[in-house]
Each structure stands twice: as structure tokens, then as C-alpha cells.
Design a protein that fits this description.
Strands 2-5-1-6-7 form a five-stranded parallel β-sheet, covered by helices on one side. A two-stranded antiparallel ribbon has the order 3-4. The protein is of the alpha/beta class. The mean pLDDT is about 90. Helices cover about 40% and strands about 20% of the residues. The chain has one domain: P-loop containing nucleotide triphosphate hydrolases (Rossmann fold). It starts with 7 loop residues before the first strand and ends with a helix. The chain contains seven helices and seven strands, in the order E-H-E-H-H-E-E-E-H-E-H-H-E-H. The radius of gyration is 17 Å and the shape is globular. Strand 3 and strand 4 form a beta hairpin. Belongs to the uridine kinase family. Its EC number is 2.7.1.48. It comes from Vibrio agarilyticus. GO terms for molecular function: ATP binding; uridine kinase activity. One of its GO terms (biological process) is UMP salvage.
């Protein structure tokens, strides 16, 4: 996709806890000085989990959050298209503890660089068409599981038992069915997680080239 109005959308996909957020935040912080304040932003695919406020908590807990159907990619595509046209959007706020959206939204204005990160980004051809560069974090699943347990227990109020149960029931099977096959659509495949310095520098150089085109 050609760069529209000097807006570059970079998609970072990969397994849960593969280092997507880390590499996104690293690139964000390092590009701030080059593109200027308020000209770079990060959008997380998790914000676009479907509203489940009409369901009971028991029903929400049973949702397969690693299946594409759990996400409102229609709304995400609409928002990206608006941003490419220079229009602001209101991004939904998702609660991991309540397993649904809150009533709050976050205003997001057009940027020169938008970093989009999420597990299922590359599974949707509409999203792939809107991104100027795509990245896949190719981190071993055992490392991802260790990181996921630590993150979900410490930051999201989960129990280790519930995290492991979800991993066995949906996380790993959905990775094998949807996420891993989507790696073929990545422009850059990053091994060793979000601390791969060479991959970060290559991606930053590619973004700079897109901004100049």
C-alpha cells in the first residue's frame, strides 16, 4: 500500500506475550525525536474485542479470545481508514478483568506513524491492505507461556490455574490454526522477541524510508 498523506501504519503480530508490546514501545520511544511529539501513536488490537456487556460473567469467561470472531475488525478497519483520511477516532477501552469494553473511549488523532499491535492482525486481508509494513514476532511458545503467566497473574488479576487452562484450551490451538499461518504475510520476521536490536533498527529504517516516499 502506498503512503497516504505521510501516514505510515506498521502492524506487529505474533503469539500472545511474544514481545509485540515491547518492540512497539521501543520503536515508539526511539522515533519520537525524529517525527515529533503527537506524530506517532500505538493502537492495540485488544481494544477492539467485541462488547460483551450483554453477557453474564460466566459467559464472558468462556469466550475464545484467540479466535478472529472475538474481535471487531470491522470497526478497526473503519478507524484506520478514517485516520488515513486525516480524521480523528475514538478507540474503545477494554477491561481485562471484566472481559468486555468499558463505557470509556480514547480520542486518537491522525499521526505520521501508527504502530498497530495484536495477535490476529495478519489473519485479516482488509487489515493487511491498510498496513504499509508488517512484522511477525517469532518467539518460541514456551517463552511466550512463561511471559503470559507472569503478566496475567501480576497485571490482570488472573490465577495461574486459569491462565494455564486457557492456554491449553484456546491460546495454543488458535495459535496453530490462525496466528502461526499468518506469518507468511509478514514483511519482517523477528526472532528472539522484542529485544532484538538489529530487527528494531531495520524496522525503524524501513519506516523512515516510507515517510520519505
Amino acid at each position: 500500500m502506498s503512503v497516504n498523506n505521510q501516514c505510515v501504519i506498521v502492524g506487529i503480530a505474533g503469539a500472545s506475550a511474544s514481545g509485540k508490546s515491547l518492540i512497539a514501545s521501543t520503536i515508539y520511544n526511539e522515533l519520537l525525536a525524529k517525527v515529533g511529539d503527537h506524530q506517532i501513536g500505538v493502537i492495540t488490537e485488544d481494544c477492539y474485542y467485541k462488547d460483551q456487556s450483554h453477557l453474564s460473567m460466566d459467559e464472558r469467561v468462556k469466550t475464545n479470545y484467540d479466535h478472529p470472531n472475538a474481535l471487531d475488525h470491522d470497526l478497526l478497519c473503519q478507524h484506520l481508514e478514517k485516520l488515513l483520511r486525516g480524521e480523528a477516532v475514538d478507540i474503545p477501552e477494554y477491561s481485562y478483568s471484566e472481559h468486555t469494553r468499558t463505557s470509556e473511549t480514547t480520542a486518537f488523532t491522525p499521526k505520521k506513524v501508527i504502530i498497530l499491535e495484536g495477535i490476529l492482525l495478519l489473519t485479516d486481508p482488509r487489515l493487511r491492505d491498510l498496513m504499509h509494513a508488517t512484522v511477525f514476532m517469532d518467539t518460541p511458545l514456551d517463552i511466550c507461556l512463561l511471559r503470559r503467566v507472569k503478566r496475567d497473574v501480576e497485571e490482570r488479576g488472573r490465577t495461574m490455574e486459569s491462565v494455564l487452562k486457557q492456554y491449553q484450551k484456546t491460546v495454543r490451538p488458535m495459535f496453530m490454526q490462525f496466528i502461526e499461518p499468518s506469518k507468511q504475510y509478514a514483511d519482517i520476521i523477528v526472532p528472539r522477541g522484542g529485544k532484538n536490536r538489529i530487527a528494531i533498527d531495520v524496522l525503524k529504517a524501513h519506516i523512515a524510508k516510507l515517510l520519505r516516499s
